[in-house]
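ingest -> validate -> predict -> emit
validate: passed (alphabet ok, no gaps, 336 aa)
predict: started
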Amino acid sequence: MINEDNTALAAQFLRHDAPLDAISSDLQHDGAVYRTLLESTRAIPWKIDWHTMEFAYIGPQIEALLGWPPSSWKTVQDWAERMHPDDRAQVVDFCVAQSKAGADHEADYRALTSDGGYVWLRDVVHVVRDEAGEVQALVGFMFDISERKKTEEQVARLQRELEELSFKDGLTSVGNRRMFDIALAREWDAALKTRSALSLVMIDIDFFKSYNDYYGHVQGDACLKRVAEILGEGLRSGDFLGRFGGEEFVLVLPDTGADAAMRVAERCRNLIGAAQIAHERSPYRQVVTASFGVGTIVPSEDLDSTGFVNLVDAQLYNAKDNGRDCIAAIDRSRVR
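emit:
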């Protein structure tokens, strides 16, 4: 167990004024007991002389864990060199600073094994000082925390996966409404700062209720997933695709003017038509089509992002009122 009792025990056993080969006769029995206790635990005790920066002692358990014999641990340089390069600078700087300040501390790092692998260690360090308060030695324990780190990494991975799922639409795997709100807010703030154009495209699958009524909801779900895939094919790097709700999708196009936004919308509309998804109840060639509302703005204090979404949504309804399978657009980027 990692606690202050361990380091106190190490400090008592590895006293700075009592070398291991010269323990006074009245402490011989206690020293033997402490050695037995320390060397029978899985924790690895050690001692470093502060003035020489040499190991005065390191437990034999180190060889079983890392493969390096105790005799190979000469100085702190051996300790530093047997540390993962990505951990070395930060851990060494931290431990040196804490030790100079006379503060007990802990550090986690990956230690190199003799066969080239790495083991996660936690060093618990106790600073031994003389009567004047000067640092004389460092004593402590190394603990193998590989299993703990593995568990922490698994938990972190699961948390990341859960977070990703919380931002994904469960059916189509594109961004959900929550992610759309975050993406729009982020791009709105960025465009507001740079005075650049921001475009939004709202998409509604035409006659989707009739599609569901005719083909059933299972086939309707398959249609939504296919349309999401098609829309993804029409995007550029940096564009956002999300499901707005039901059969509606939305694109956020950062740093995109009105003409470029229309090209993206037209490309997506053509891709959906070219997919030839059968829709017997549609009056348009009996295939799935979609209506598009497009809006472009240079964000200002005159209109917030919610108002902008409402403007684009109105354009989507204009497209549906004008016969569907078309695009209606509004350009607010030139309004001052």
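Confidence is low (pLDDT under 50) at residues 13-28.
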